[in-house]
Amino acid sequence: MYGLLKNFYHFLFKFVHLKFSYTRKLSSLALDILTAIIYYNVKMSTLDRIKELEKQQSQILKQILAVRSMLPGAYREVYCKCGKPNCWCHKKGGHLFRRITWSENGRSKTKAIPEEDVSWIKELTENYKEFQKKRRQIKELEGILKELLGEHAKAVIKKSSRLRDYLCQK
Ligand SMILES: [Zn+2]
């Protein structure tokens, strides 16, 4: 039963990796699932979980380092009425302004951007969000690793103590 379950998880790992390695969003979903499996799967040995975690960490790190362009902030569209007295915008919603807004030292900053840069700005701000998400994931995994290493140390010490009669706890 135990072996079967282990095989099933290994299959699931491979399946999830294969299935979701194509797009960034889905692969981070896959990582969430893998984290959950590693964290809650008590059937898997501590050592296996540590090894799986290591793989996962290096995979995320690779993805983080692959990000070559990013900007903090968000794309916003705002409609403003202008100062011209007879302009159409006073009756209708206003002129469209495209902006990027971000926070710097606790202060909100805004810059107008040209229309042709909209998709570029969106892409770069999306990259930044993804980058930050992956940083949080690495931190989470570090926490899990710390716990697992504690468990692993206990197991190794217990095993070593059994090697000598005088070390055995009775
Ligand atoms: Zn106007």
Could you explain the architecture of this structure?
It is a single chain. This protein is an alpha+beta fold. It has 4 helices and 3 strands. The protein folds into 2 domains: 2-69 and 130-167; 74-123, no CATH class. The chain has a 3-stranded antiparallel β-sheet. A hairpin with a 2-residue loop joins strand 2 (95-104) and strand 3. The longest helix has 44 residues, at 118-161. The chain is rod-shaped and about 95 Å long. Residues 18-24 have low confidence and may be disordered. Bound molecules: zinc ion (ZN). The site of zinc ion has 5 residues, from loops. Zinc ion (ZN) binds at residues 82, 84, 87, 89, 95.
Sum up the structure in keywords:
single chain, 170 residues, alpha+beta, 2 domains, three-stranded antiparallel beta sheet, 3 strands, rod-shaped, binds zinc ion
Compute the separation of the termini in Å.
Answer: 31 Å
Compute the gyration radius: what is it?
Answer: 26 Å
In which order are the strands of the major sheet placed? 1-2-3
What ions, cofactors and ligands are bound?
Answer: zinc ion
Tally of alpha and pi helices: 4
What is the makeup of the main sheet?
3 strands, antiparallel
Output mean pLDDT.
83
Order of helices and strands: HHHEEEH
The number of strands is: 3
Tell me the β content: 5-15%
Low-pLDDT parts are 18-24
Classify the helix fraction into a percent range.
55-70%
Query: What is the count of structural domains?
Result: 2
- Global geometry: rod-shaped
